């Protein structure tokens, strides 16, 4: 089995607030893509949600299933024919533990293949207040068979704050 090699393609570290971060002109020379995120939001809650928009597509071409735990409670949800986004990640918002940034990962295998695109997500949020945090995992399907050339990370409500970091990697099998 080949050993995957992560190649850093792009990095964005925010110096102010913004609602979206876009990686564009993604080369088609890798097998998979990975986005690693360390983020915090400014919406007035403990936890917020982010999504991935592919190739700027805002049509109803996305579906997802999510599993997540809030402290000791376990939940799930799913939706089909969603507009604008796929695969959610949870992260710290303004009323959670001060200066805490969450970890989120989006994995996009076979992003150049002429097939519908699969996206997996995982996230970990530390709150240290009334609950112990949030862990989430998701699986999404993007209905287009076009190769992925751009990804936009979208804050569900509010903005990502200064210091939030977004890294895009291409994976090559060596």
Topology:
Layout lengths: L3 E10 L6 E4 L8 E8 L7 E8 L7 E9 L2 E10 L3 E7 L9 E8 L7 E9 L8 E9 L8 E5 L9 E9 L1
Antiparallel strand pairs: 1-12, 2-11, 3-8, 3-12, 4-7, 4-11, 5-6, 5-10, 8-9, 9-10
The global form is globular
Q: Give me the Rg, rounded.
A: 16 Å
The structure class reads: mainly beta
User: What CATH first level would be assigned?
Assistant: Mainly Beta
User: Any low-confidence stretches, pLDDT <50, length ≥5?
Assistant: none
**How helix-rich are the residues, as a percent range?**
under 10%
The number of distinct β-strands equals 12
Head-to-tail CA distance between termini: 9 Å
Total number of domains: 1
Average pLDDT: 86
Question: Could you explain how this protein is built, in words?
Answer:
The protein has no helices and twelve strands. It is mostly beta strands and 174 residues long. It has a single domain (4-173), classed as Jelly Rolls, CATH 2.60.120. The strands form two sheets. It has an eight-stranded antiparallel sheet with strand order 1-12-3-8-9-10-5-6, with no helix packed on it. Strands 2-11-4-7 form a four-stranded antiparallel sheet, with no helix packed on it. A hairpin with a 2-residue loop joins strand 5 and strand 6 (73-82). It is globular and about 45 Å long. The model has no long low-confidence stretch (mean pLDDT 86).
């Amino acid at each position: 089995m080949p050993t995957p090699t992560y190649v850093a393609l792009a990095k964005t570290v925010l110096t102010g607030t913004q609602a979206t971060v876009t990686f564009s002109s993604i080369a088609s020379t890798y097998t998979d893509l990975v986005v690693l995120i360390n983020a915090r939001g400014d919406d007035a809650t403990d936890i917020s949600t982010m999504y991935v928009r592919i190739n700027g597509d805002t049509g109803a071409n996305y579906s997802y299933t999510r599993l997540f735990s809030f402290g000791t409670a376990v939940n799930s949800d799913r939706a089909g024919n969603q507009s604008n986004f796929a695969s959610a990640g949870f992260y710290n918002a303004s009323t959670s533990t001060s200066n805490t940034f969450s970890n989120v990962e989006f994995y996009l295998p076979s992003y150049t293949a002429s097939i519908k695109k699969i996206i997996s997500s995982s996230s970990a949020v530390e709150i240290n207040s009334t609950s112990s945090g949030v862990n989430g995992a998701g699986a999404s399907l993007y209905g287009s068979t076009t190769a992925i050339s751009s990804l936009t990370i979208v804050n569900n409500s509010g903005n990502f704050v200064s210091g939030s970091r977004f890294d895009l990697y291409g994976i090559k099998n060596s």
